[in-house]
Amino acid sequence: MTDYFCTQVDEKTQREIVREMAYSYKIDPKSHCKKSVMNWSELKKAASDPLCSVGAHTLNHYHLARLAREEAAFEMAQSAEILAVELGERPKHFAYPYGGKIAAGRREAELAREAGFVSAVTTRHGLIHPNHADALHALPRLSINGEYQRVHYVKTMLSGITVPVANRGRRFTTV
Questions:
Q1: Hey, which residues does 125 pair with through a beta bridge?
Q2: What is the DSSP letter of 140?
């Protein structure tokens, strides 16, 4: 079923199907979001901390590579514009939804650059190296979620030891 959704159904239809499925199981997606996502007041408070930087992420969390170039560009740029209005500053950085190799390729890196972002992170596992200076719109990142929210896991990932395991022996990857 996952392959079907990823390859055969366009982004908007996929959302409609998931929404209908949620409602059929008496799950209100909007209520879930309100409980799980920061509101503007909370985000403004976080953004005011000098150690925090808010980046853009798109309007609808679509798989950008599956969108027409113009629609993908709009998703990226418009999300930054809304954040600029709400937070008083346009984000300089971008994080790709579904940021794997297929979802965040050369075209998406080019779109991020054209949208004026200084950098963009993929979901490719890795640490940033000097070699990434030429790939600022396709940076790897460490995903600290789920089972990996403990300090000793973060320390292990920051050591770089997990990178070759996740990247078929390579310590450095780009688009």
A1: 141
A2: E
Q: What gap in Å lies between CA 89 and CA 80, rounded to an integer?
A: 9
Q: List Cβ neighbours of 44 (8 Å cut-off, separation of 6 or more).
A: 86, 87
Spatial separation of the C-alpha atoms in residues 135 and 34, rounded to whole Å: 35
Cα(89)–Cα(55) distance, integer angstroms: 10
Distances from the Cα of 100 to the Cα of 77, 140, 158, angstroms: 20, 10, 20
- Whether residue 93 contacts residue 119, with contact meaning beta carbons closer than 8 Å, is answered with yes
Token pair 């418009």: residue = 78
Rounded Cα distance, 164 and 105, in Å: 20
Q: How far apart are the C-alpha atoms of 124 and 105, rounded to whole Å?
A: 11
| Residue 174 vs residue 6, higher pLDDT | 174
Q: Locate tokens 């950098």: which residue?
A: 119
Residue 90 in 3-state DSSP? coil
pTM for the complete prediction?
0.83
